[in-house]
UniProtKB/TrEMBL annotation:
Keyword Calcium recorded: no
This protein's name: Alpha/beta hydrolase
Keywords recorded for this protein, A-Z: Hydrolase
KW Repeat (keyword) present: no
Residues of the AB hydrolase-1 domain: 25-258
Alphabetical list of InterPro entries matching this protein: AB_hydrolase_1, AB_hydrolase_fold, AB_hydrolase_sf, Epox_hydrolase-like
Organism: Devosia rhodophyticola
Length: 282
């Protein structure tokens, strides 16, 4: 059962949830979602004996914030400090994955492992295929007209269905959840003073934490290329491509994501246990 609480920091009340006990896992949501995107994965992690933590970043979900200068990285550090967590496994999707990478670069000794799904990376190149331009144009048109409902539908096609897939490919509860999460983000009061993220693209090769990289083959081509780049550059990365899945695999195909997540978590904990046994033997 969720423990719901708030962390007040630098003009914001960050809406957080936690469940379970054990080694902490912090789930960081995508830029078109909120912490609800991780409900299935949090349940899977707690069933394995971990403590699962998620929160809504500024501009998302139930978090409220004044329009002040802020950094998502500072907010993450504030949440960890409030929970007295020094080190954790970070699980992030899209912008949440980029935040996890930023934290790993700033605090390498505090990251036990990383799970990155369709992750962003500050400073990474972003090139569209010809077949992906139509949706970008539709998005720009909805923004220009101020039509948030249409923009939400375009985002669902881009990020849930996939830019080259048929509109409505993903339906049911997953689509309803996506549209509700993204609608809240689109209608939130603008935050105009976010601090720029330092480039991370050419620094990822120094991240030694064990890392699981996941991408869907229906995601934007640039996301797939970035996934391949990270798998080559990050020294302890294991990469998986999910077939017929787009940018938000946690809600589209939890049946595929959850076993991968649990296997990775067990491997990371097993590695830690093995190292402890080696040290004791010495």
């Amino acid at each position: 059962m969720d423990e719901v609480f708030g962390v007040t920091f630098s003009g914001a009340a960050l809406a957080c949830r936690s469940q379970g006990d054990g080694l902490p896992i912090v789930f960081l949501h995508a830029g078109v979602c909120d912490s609800r995107m991780w409900a299935d994965q949090m349940a899977a992690a707690t069933a394995e004996g971990f403590r699962a933590i998620a929160y809504d970043r500024r501009g998302y979900g139930e978090t409220t914030s004044s329009d002040v200068s802020f950094s998502h990285l500072d907010d993450l550090e504030a949440v960890l400090r409030a929970l007295n967590i020094h080190a954790a496994i970070l699980v992030g999707c899209s912008l949440g994955g980029g935040l996890a990478l930023d934290f790993a670069l700033k605090h390498p000794g505090r990251v036990i492992g990383l799970v990155l799904m369709g992750t962003s990376v500050a400073g990474a190149p972003y090139d569209l295929l010809e077949s992906e331009h139509g949706l970008e144009m539709a998005e720009a048109d909805a923004v220009e007209r101020g039509d948030l409902d249409m923009l939400n539908l375009v985002h669902a096609h881009e990020w849930l269905d996939g830019p080259r897939a048929q509109n409505g490919r993903v339906g049911g509860d997953a689509r309803r959840l996506f549209l509700d999460m993204n609608a809240k983000a689109l209608k939130a009061s603008p935050l105009t003073q976010e601090q720029a993220r330092p480039p991370a693209y050419e620094l990822v090769d120094v991240i030694n934490a064990p890392t699981l990289l996941i991408v869907g083959d229906q995601d934007f081509n640039s996301q797939i290329q970035l996934h391949e780049y990270l798998s080559e550059e990050m020294p302890n990365a294991f990469a998986v491509v999910l077939e017929n899945v787009a940018h938000i695999p946690s809600i589209e195909r939890p049946d595929l994501v959850n076993p991968l997540l649990v296997e990775f978590l067990d491997a990371v904990v097993g590695t830690d246990d093995d190292e402890d046994e080696d040290e004791q033997a010495e």
